[in-house]
């Protein structure tokens, strides 16, 4: 357990960074003019974003070209800097008065082949193989969480769809979240507190004294009591109605904020080949509009959507008074010194905003409810 307190870093530390442009160290030139530096570290399929604001009141700053590559390391003097990756310049703005240059750079170049709409089909393969194929044609490597890698993909089409959109859809159907980090497409199991290889991440403890500000929000869970997914059963000549019951196993004493769905399956009259998979109550369920190829695919998609709804039902954001460049998404977090329901909830980091300016170095941590050790029980009966 990493314990985060204000006194850990000491009062004498000063924020520090290094920055290179096309391999050339420009730290000194930038630090003398830096108005602000913001780095957003995302877990989802959004590029990590580096934003720089540089003073140009003397008019001597040269505008970088779009496509130039910046490399950033961030942290505190005397404690070692953390490499935060490389970023491709995508936007340059010159404004005034007073004159300043704003630079936006992304961790992946979305202007390239990832954004090109394609026609492709994938047959008799696995999730890992599909992700690897898509990554390779974009010059990227790939890694898929062990629990997801062997998921069978009998058939899926990519019709006039960019690789970014396709990978996002593929992830959503299979309980994953896709992202690009350091030249690799990653398929993670969100909210589990593990690395892409399945190894547990050391948890972090945050006390109220470590934060400058915080915000907690809870959504109305009654809005969706479950998820409905459907599939077309074309393998059986004369299909019969099946009843499928899926229950998430309850812990011995689950917290009040952790709801668990009930499940059943129905076949509407007049739709003999269309089977519906229902998680939760039928009166107020979230309906997935896509029709799946099998019951297995429908189950995975319904579980994935239900878990996403559960994770986002409660969110908690806290701005750390002393920045932590070593933190990254999916780190499990416990907090203390707030309300009982907040302190008792297990959290994971969804996103981080690192900010460096004349006021110092802070990190805003975006947390969502953690879903760990979730198991399902399934029973099938035939009418």
Automatic annotation (TrEMBL):
InterPro entries: Phage_Baseplate_Hub (IPR052726). It comes from the Bacteria. This is Phage late control D family protein. It comes from Siccibacter turicensis.
């Amino acid at each position: 357990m990493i314990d985060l307190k204000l006194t850990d870093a000491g009062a004498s530390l000063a924020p520090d960074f290094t920055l290179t442009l096309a391999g050339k160290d420009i730290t000194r030139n930038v630090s003398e003019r830096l108005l602000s530096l913001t780095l957003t570290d995302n877990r989802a399929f959004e590029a990590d974003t580096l934003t720089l604001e540089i003073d140009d009141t003397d008019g001597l700053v040269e505008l970088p070209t779009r496509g130039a590559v910046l490399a950033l390391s961030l942290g505190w003097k005397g404690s070692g800097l953390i490499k935060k990756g490389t970023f491709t310049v995508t936007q340059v703005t010159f404004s005034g008065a007073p004159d300043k240059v704003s630079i936006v750079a992304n961790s992946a170049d979305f202007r390239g082949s990832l954004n090109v709409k394609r026609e492709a089909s994938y047959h008799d393969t696995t999730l890992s193989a599909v992700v690897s194929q898509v990554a390779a044609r974009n010059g990227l490597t790939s890694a898929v969480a062990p629990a997801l890698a062997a998921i069978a993909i009998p058939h899926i089409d990519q019709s006039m769809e960019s690789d970014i959109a396709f990978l996002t859809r593929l992830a959503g159907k299979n309980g994953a979240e896709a992202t690009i980090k350091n030249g690799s497409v990653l398929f993670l199991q969100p909210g589990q507190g593990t690395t892409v290889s399945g190894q547990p991440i050391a948890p972090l403890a945050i006390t109220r004294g470590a934060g400058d500000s915080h915000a907690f929000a809870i959504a109305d869970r009654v809005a969706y009591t479950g998820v409905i997914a459907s599939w077309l059963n074309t393998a059986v000549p004369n299909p019969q109605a099946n009843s499928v019951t899926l229950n998430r196993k309850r812990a011995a004493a689950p917290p009040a904020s952790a709801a668990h769905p009930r499940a059943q399956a129905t076949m509407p009259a007049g739709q003999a080949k269309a089977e519906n998979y229902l998680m939760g109550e039928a009166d107020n369920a979230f309906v997935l509009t896509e029709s799946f190829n099998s019951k297995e695919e429908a189950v995975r998609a319904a579980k994935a959507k239900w878990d996403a709804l559960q994770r986002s039902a409660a969110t908690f954001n806290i701005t750390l008074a002393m920045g932590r460049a070593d933190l990254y998404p999916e780190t499990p977090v416990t907090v203390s010194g707030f309300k009982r329901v907040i302190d008792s909830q297990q959290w994971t980091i969804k996103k981080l905003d690192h900010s460096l300016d004349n006021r110092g170095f802070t990190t805003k941590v975006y947390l969502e409810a953690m879903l760990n050790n979730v198991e399902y029980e399934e029973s099938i009966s035939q009418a």
